[in-house]
Write a structure and sequence with these properties.
- This protein is mainly α.
- Helices cover 65% and strands 0% of the residues.
- The protein starts with a helix and ends with a helix.
- The model has no long low-confidence stretch (mean pLDDT 96).
- The protein binds ligand OAM.
Length: 115
């Protein structure tokens, strides 16, 4: 099945925006806790508490495999990273602070890029 040129161009625009946004998240100084999946064998309680683990490398994999059918599903995975962080970490812990900082940055960048 072929998209119309308009919807094809629109899709390319959101894929481009997702690539830019993810590259910026990965490059952020506070990204270090989120770059790879939490090691559930070495972090007590994580597997039980966090039902849907997510991290930037998994999002990168899904983006590369065209698994995001909409901008919304991409944004939901990024927010899942930050929601998991808030659930498992104290707000004023080092990792908790990194999560808040990254969420603020993401909210600002995607509204600038797409609104
Ligand atoms: C993300 C994330 N949320 N919680 C953790 C974590 C890992 N161990 N402990 C005790 C946590 N609270 N993480 C992963 C942080 C990954 N990381 C990388 C370098 N140092 C920690």
């Amino acid at each position: 099945k072929h998209d119309s040129p308009v919807s094809c161009a629109k899709k390319a625009k959101t894929v481009k925006a997702q690539q830019i946004l993810l590259a910026e998240l990965e490059a952020h100084p506070a990204a270090w806790p989120f770059l790879s999946p939490v090691n559930q064998k070495s972090v007590p309680g994580y597997r039980k508490v966090i039902k849907k683990p997510m991290d930037f490398s998994t999002i990168r994999e899904k983006l590369t495999n065209n698994q995001y059918l909409s901008l919304e599903s991409f944004i939901m995975d990024v927010n899942l990273v930050f929601d998991n962080c808030e659930k498992f970490n104290e707000d004023h812990s080092e990792i908790g602070q990194a999560g808040h900082s990254m969420r603020r940055y993401f909210d600002k960048r995607w509204t600038e890029l797409l609104k």
